[in-house]
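Sample intake sheet
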Amino acid sequence: MALLVAGLGVATWLYVRDLNDNIDRQDLHLGEHRLEKPPPNADGQTPLNILLVGSDARDSEENLRLGGARHTADGPPIADVQMLLHISADRSNMTVISVPRDTRVTIPACTDPATGEQYPTVESDTINHSLQRGGPGCTVATWEELTGIPIDHFMMVDFAGVVSMADAVGGVPVCVDANVHDPKSGLRLSAGESVIRGEQALQWLRTRYGFEDGSDIGRTRGQHVYLGSMVRELQAGARLTDPGKLNALANAATRALTVDQELGSVTRLYELGEDLRRVPTERINMITMPWIPDPMNPSAHVVPEPGAAEELFALVREDVALDDRDGDSVVDPEDAAGTGTDGEPSANPTTAPRETLPLAVRNGTGSVTMPPVNGRATELVEVLREAGFALAVVDERPISQADTALSYPTDDRRADALAIAEELGLPMRSVRISPSVEAITLVIGTDWREGGSYPVPVDDPEIGEPNELDSSQALSADDDGTCMTVNPRAVW
């Protein structure tokens, strides 16, 4: 949607004002604790994380007609579709993660800004119900709890919005490997490629029983196929040269949107669209969160797959593209000699004497559902001082962070940071350069709530050995040859 707005170019002030009036705005985060945004990289750039939410609200006659199920008209909506767009700090790549709506998660405490109603923490519920607890801001808080990824913005659209957007785009090519008919969603297509628009696009995005095994997992794959095809259409620019179509696109996009307060203007959407347009289609990779059947209800719900899901979330937190994954080895003492950010030896490959090295330690062990461990920074300061880092001190400023990170301000401090990481047993991925810190700074994340040495992952005998992420399951937006596999029970 931001891509569409970016296609507007220069508009009159009055026209922009009218478009701004179309946009619905809500609070970004309704939880009690927000995660800190990551520090800028060496070039002062930061990644961007945007949560896309598809609501099943039946709050209008049009939404009722499109969604059916009139018996739910008076009930709160749920989040049928949830995708996280992670745009890298240098805008060279994008990772899109879908979480199936039937994923069982912890939903943190949220407060409805409109009514003041306070919803307590729910330890186990499906993620689609998070929208019912005050709005999309609670879904944002839930994603932060699940992934440890700080969310910058959200964009939400309902049934009618999807239809108007699909009509404005003018059609999106999709492909199925057999004749498909899903009476539940209304989708009916012949085998091969079709160009879908309007209600047919909504049927494609909603179909659950038409694809693969008839579960929500197949639905997320179909949504990725649609999204990739739409990106290719928009990047080709065919819809962005006709003024009449451009006007329709702009109005459809803004009327379809509910966004957070900061993103709620055409100017901000334009800036976001420009960022998105910089990402080559071949570097946009879409993947569904690795999952396993929920042991409590394996036929209906799923849970994140141990190992693989966390690896995917960690790649996003560390701003690593799916098609360019880095290693995750613990710091080797031989690496303490240091290298520059380009892999070459740094200008100063030697380490400073430990007793002269300034080092700040911050306690980031709190999360949206867990309080911080009191005195945690003091504990590790004592560990570091015993190891010879006499100038280690506690930084009392509050912070909440999923992953432990050791940041250094300039390249000539890399060797010192690696020496500290080696002493604590930190993995290499935890060490990063950041111009936002004045001295080497250790932020203790929620992944290290006890002990003086970074914990080595321990296998859970009830779950088995954690699996590695299979990034080959990702779909590239540049892939125009994917046909959705039709559920055999939905073939006509």
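Comment: Residues 8-12, 326-348, 459-464 have pLDDT under 50 and may be disordered. Residues 216-236 form the longest helix (21 residues).
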